[in-house]
Amino acid sequence: MNNIPLREIGSTGTSVTQFGLGTAPLGDLFEALDEGAAQNVLQAAWDVGVRLFDTSPFYGNGKSEHRVGHFLRQKPRDEYVLSTKVGRVFHPARDLETFDPGPFTGALPFEFTVDYSYDGIMRSYEDSLHRLSLPNVDLLVIHDLDFYFYETEARVNAYLNQLFTSGWRALDELRRYGLVKGVGAGINELGMIPRFLDLVDLDFFLVAYGYNLLTQEMLEEEFPLCEQQGISIIVGAVFASGILATGAVPGAHYFYAPASPEMMERTDRIERICKRYETPLPCAALQFLTANPIVSAIIPGALKAAHVQTNFDMLRKPVPRELWGALKSEGLLREDAPTP
């Protein structure tokens, strides 16, 4: 096993491997995986030393949790950290003929109700334990409470109010009684971190947008606020939905949508500088994230076992320091952005 550096999550006393595994692809996100391939991805992660695994009931309507649980049940419970999410309660699909799996092409035939109440969060937590067939999880994440999913101020405010007046009591109890070690929130956009911190006492944020090699907007307000309060960051969408892995190729995606001409041009400029210093773009993307001390872990997903090994190798590949200076001098990286 490789010795991946450990970093603590907030002040929880729980340390995680800096390189973790996001398991949305194991819920058949955009592409179906057979069981053998899914287990191979998990085994590849374990073999390189990954000990942080992040899943969610939303990933394949429970499929990811089933697969992750099957794998981790065979490992010593004290050797890994497991994260899952709350905010949706699942029930069997009412009509299999009209069932829509959404982006998870091989999703299990279940549908969900959005629920950030006390009962909803406790139900979601207990259902996850059953799907995982494990006695506990280490970290719980409030999932997708933002404008990306709920669109309007009225709906976001309503769910934030439900969380604050009801659901937070469940999360606080689970943490106080030692049933989970840390509580966080998933963030898909700017502006939500301050709103959460005005309401609840979190240990970390799982960030999918606003901090990557293409944009560092979270350095303006969000990250300094977290640093002041001792709150950690886990970065989810390390390749910005793909473009930082593929480069500015036709059809490249940025944040779940086709990349704009401006983002394609910016990516191309960054990649040209990376090539000047003989550094693959994904290598720069990964190492940029782990250079920030507030980032406890990155959790790239993988469709194949080979992808896990490639990402791990990219993290260890030497990168010339001059690359980071060149990106900053070209205005492609913020001057205050931490670099290796």
From TrEMBL:
Instruction: Identify the Pfam families for this entry.
Output: Aldo_ket_red (PF00248)
Domain NADP-dependent oxidoreductase: from-to ranges: 20-328
State the Gene Ontology terms under molecular function: oxidoreductase activity
Q: Entry's InterPro entries? A: AKR, NAD(P)_OxRdtase_dom_sf, NADP_OxRdtase_dom
Instruction: Return the GO cellular component terms, semicolon-separated.
Output: cytosol
Q: What is this protein called?
A: Aldo/keto reductase
The organism named in the record is: Caldilineaceae bacterium SB0661_bin_32
